[in-house]
């Protein structure tokens, strides 16, 4: 196929495909005889006319859009490999706790069950969409009036079908990320939106520090599960709206990452979002692990179905799109938000299994079930867990994951887990845990 397809190239390409299937005479068109194509197409059997239209739309969808001015979702870089099922199970194993070596035999230690901590997230957020477009025979024949008219016809089909799919991907992805921000599932960093050199440098400094924090040590600070993970530099992605990009490209971003903005984009590590794309514009930038986004098409999609309607002489197409859109709670994500859009008034704690009483020598997982923010503001579920009321120093809680270990020698009958918000250390939540006798 030619590198840049024009109307003549398209019609000849479709004619060649049809000739391979049917024993029909279709002209090799040029600019001078282009208008003759309508008469030639009218003269062939109806089945050939229908297949000619089918081949045209397939060519538009698969090849022309790559060479013409077709819209592409700016979240396309987040898409991972297609999957065959609607249900996906994400799992993560936490770090293994080290124990002090002793040369003395310890039967209790030898026979103790040392199962690793494994958490599972089930996702089945499959989006099912269809995009319909109809092509009337007379509209198609009229498009052969000139090469310019045919190009205009192709553009209308392209915009109506394939560009609509790409824009839907933008909307769905924005809504998915915003919903997780609203639910408190994303670590928030209140910071003034860059508008000049000083604020751009402050933003970039914070962005670089977060990126370094995520890569130098495994930690549970920036992912909702609280399990220890890390984000290598090559897997870190920067999202920025158009205003922030313009300011930071001038003042600071290249310095922070030792790469120009163009290089970051080329490496697939920079996404330019529209202004006000996330949380109504409250969030203006994100630094995230690329694998925090589970966006996967179902195998075989997008696919096109078609039907010819003889009563209207119209060929109708449906572009079907099925894909999974979800966020992984096991990967790091941090969102930069305007400080005046942040607020937290309260939070509630719960355990993963819903229990409030546990035996000695057992483990409970405490989590932030919900957070409450003032109207129009945002809060998150990130902070620090602490423990009180325990008698044994072996009874402890992990600061980020909420993993509560109740020691075998614990004598207290009641423990108190306290969570303190990282957004406001005056906001806390507590959970009472009973220890069975």
The gist of it:
With 437 residues, the chain is α+β, with helices and mostly antiparallel strands.
Description of the structure:
- Strands 4-11-7-5-6 form a 5-stranded mixed sheet.
- The protein has helices at residues 7-21, 37-43, 46-67, 107-111, 137-142, 147-182, 197-216, 242-251, 253-257, 261-266; strands at 88-93, 118-123, 126-136, 187-190, 236-241, 270-273, 283-289, 293-297, 303-309, 314-327, 333-337, 346-351, 357-358, 362-372, 383-388, 396-397, 403-406, 414-421, 428-435.
- Helix 3 (46-67) crosses helix 6 (147-182) and helix 7 (197-216) packs across helix 8.
- It has 10 helices and 19 strands.
- CATH architecture type of the domain at 343-435: Sandwich
Radius of gyration: 29 Å
- The overall pLDDT average reads 86
Gross morphology is elongated
Low-confidence stretches: 65-69
**What structural class do you assign from the helix and strand content?**
alpha+beta
Largest sheet: 5 strands, mixed
Order of helices and strands: HHHEHEEHHEHEHHHEEEEEEEEEEEEEE
Number of helices: 10
CATH top level assignment of the domain at 343-435: Mainly Beta
N-to-C span: 78 Å
Query: What is the name of the CATH topology of the domain at 343-435?
Result: Immunoglobulin-like
Query: Going across the major beta sheet, what is the strand order?
Result: 4-11-7-5-6
Q: In what range is the share of β-strand residues?
A: 25-35%
How many strand elements?
19
State the helical fraction.
Answer: 25-40%
